[in-house]
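Thread amino acids onto this structure.
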């Protein structure tokens, strides 16, 4: 018997269902957050260099012209934050890459997950994968399975997420 790493889905389900139970609540949230009509690529975790967030910011720059509706939302804090903010500015995508800081309350995280079109964790994904799946959000990460955390076992390329070549 193998017990895989897990994340308590009850708080996620409670917050998710509460948001979904109120018609129009998500639309109001998107309007007030300035993301109505936008495609959201979401990241939620510590801002560590090992997580490859520079790749996500570079992707936002590469897609700037072909996907003008794309907005990257980064929730978390950590030692790489200043470097990442500087990179977004240098690449001319500071208006498309938003750093929201740390959010720990599930009720406050829920609308971001529900608004997201994809959850992008460039490298080193762990329990965040299960968090995104709790909201039904597909996950994008790299295909170097040996460097991922054990939770990668839940991802099925082409089914509930996508793997890109590391």
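Threaded sequence (166 positions):
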């Amino acid at each position: 018997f193998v017990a895989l790493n897990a994340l308590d889905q009850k708080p996620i389900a409670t917050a998710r269902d509460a948001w979904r139970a109120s018609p129009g609540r998500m639309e109001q949230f998107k309007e007030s957050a300035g993301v109505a009509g936008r495609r959201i690529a979401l990241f939620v975790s510590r801002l560590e260099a090992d997580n490859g967030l520079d790749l996500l910011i570079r992707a936002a720059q590469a897609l700037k012209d072909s996907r003008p509706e794309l907005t990257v939302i980064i929730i978390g804090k950590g030692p790489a934050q200043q470097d990442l903010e500087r990179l977004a500015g240098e690449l001319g995508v500071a208006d498309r890459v938003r750093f929201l800081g740390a959010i720990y309350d599930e009720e406050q995280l829920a609308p971001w997950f529900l608004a997201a079109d994809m959850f992008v964790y460039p490298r080193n994904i762990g329990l965040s994968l299960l968090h995104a799946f709790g909201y039904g959000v597909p996950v994008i990460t790299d295909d170097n399975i040996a460097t991922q955390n054990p939770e990668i076992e839940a991802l099925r390329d082409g089914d509930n997420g996508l793997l890109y070549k590391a």
